[in-house]
Specification:
The chain is an alpha/beta fold. The protein contains six helices and five strands; from the N terminus they run E-H-E-H-E-H-E-H-E-H-H. A five-stranded parallel β-sheet has the order 2-1-3-4-5, sandwiched between helices. The longest helix has 29 residues.
Length: about 170
């Protein structure tokens, strides 16, 4: 049976462009995921069911993106013991994204939500993979390769800078 390890949820289809970056990163690292629209405000029963059954469905981490008041990550975290990574999404009804950032960041004691940068779904995908990679050597190895590739890119940029500025 093919188990999805990460759940990617968002409050609206308009969040998909941002949240797709988490999915793309997980695909690159070989981590299976599922993706769905789960609104804390418009489909609260679906949100409760999603969060409460996530572990039984094989999920290890949930990445939840939300804009505006951004209640989805915190509400999901209140209903599961799985790690939840919140992605604040700059949406049309947000206050330049700050309301989303603060809603996800300022969780009460006992209900943690790891929070990435505004529209930072790529980092959320990496963090989800790192959580899984802490216990899965195959994912851990792919993360090591990914980080090594980042170093190579920086070294290449450094060489390019020095070559273009050499007189």
């Amino acid at each position: 049976m093919f188990l999805r390890m990460v759940g990617i949820i968002m409050g609206s289809l308009s969040d998909r462009k941002v949240m797709q970056e988490a999915a793309d990163m997980l695909t690159e690292l070989g981590v299976a995921y599922e993706m769905d629209i789960v609104s804390a405000h418009r489909t609260p029963e679906k949100m409760v069911e999603y969060a409460k059954t996530a572990r039984d469905r094989g999920l290890k981490v949930i990445v939840a993106g939300a804009g505006g008041a951004a209640h989805l990550p915190g509400m999901v975290a209140s209903l599961t013991t799985l790690p939840v990574i919140g992605v604040p999404v700059k949406s049309s009804n947000s206050i330049d994204g700050w309301d989303s950032v603060l809603s996800i960041l300022q969780m009460p004691s006992g209900v943690p939500v790891a929070t990435v940068a505004l529209n930072g779904a790529r980092n959320a995908g990496i963090l989800a993979a790192q959580i899984i990679g802490a216990f899965d050597p195959i994912v851990g190895g792919k993360l090591t390769s990914y980080k090594e590739a980042l170093k190579v890119k920086v070294d290449e940029m450094s060489r390019e800078l020095h070559q273009s500025s050499a007189i």
